[in-house]
Amino acid sequence: MHRQFRLSRSEDFKRVRRTGKSYAHPLVVLVTQASEMKDHLKIGVTAGKTTGTAVHRNRAKRLLREAMRTLIPSIASGWDLILIARPALVTATLEDTRSALINVLTRARLFSADESSG
């Protein structure tokens, strides 16, 4: 996932977590909030200590970033998103992760399947 799409400031994470709407899946939780900038899409990725050791948390975040990279063209702009890894994500494949993301993005009405490239 390119850096221009990353949500990185602590204040932004707190704002989205506090006022956003969440969508859960066994592998990942998606938290969404409309952005002030309507033409931008910002995505934050996090993994708590319940996910496992630092090695497991980093793998889970890498999986989420890579799965999200291919989906970004199909996601509606004007949103701030946070992806929270769950413990089961550590053993998931890239395809499992991608399908979990499509599932939660579709439920949040942010994913347009007809624009998907993969």
Write a structural description:
By secondary structure, the chain is an alpha+beta fold. It is 36% helix and 21% strand. It contains 3 helices and 4 strands; from the N terminus they run H-E-E-E-H-E-H. It has helices at residues 10-19, 54-71, 94-107; strands at residues 21-24, 28-34, 41-47, 79-85. It has a 4-stranded mixed sheet, with helices on both faces. A hairpin with a 3-residue loop joins strand 1 (21-24) and strand 2 (28-34). The radius of gyration is 13 Å and the shape is globular. The model has no long low-confidence stretch (mean pLDDT 90).
Write the layout of secondary structure elements.
Layout: H1 10-19, E1 21-24, E2 28-34, E3 41-47, H2 54-71, E4 79-85, H3 94-107
Parallel strand pairs: 3-4
Antiparallel strand pairs: 1-2, 2-4
Helix pairs in contact: 2-3
Q: Main sheet: which strands, in order across?
A: 1-2-4-3
Structural class label? alpha+beta
**Which term fits the overall shape?**
globular
Classify the helix fraction into a percent range: 25-40%
Question: How many beta-strand elements?
Answer: 4
Distance between the termini: 15 Å
**What integer value in Å does the Rg equal?**
13 Å
Share of residues in strands: 15-25%
Largest beta-sheet characterization? 4 strands, mixed
Number of helices: 3
Give me the strand/helix succession: HEEEHEH
Summary tags:
118 residues; alpha+beta; 3 helices; globular
What is the compact description of this entry?
With 118 residues, this protein is an alpha+beta fold. It has helices spanning 10-19, 54-71, 94-107, and strands spanning 21-24, 28-34, 41-47, 79-85. The longest helix is centred in the middle third of the chain and has 18 residues, at 54-71.
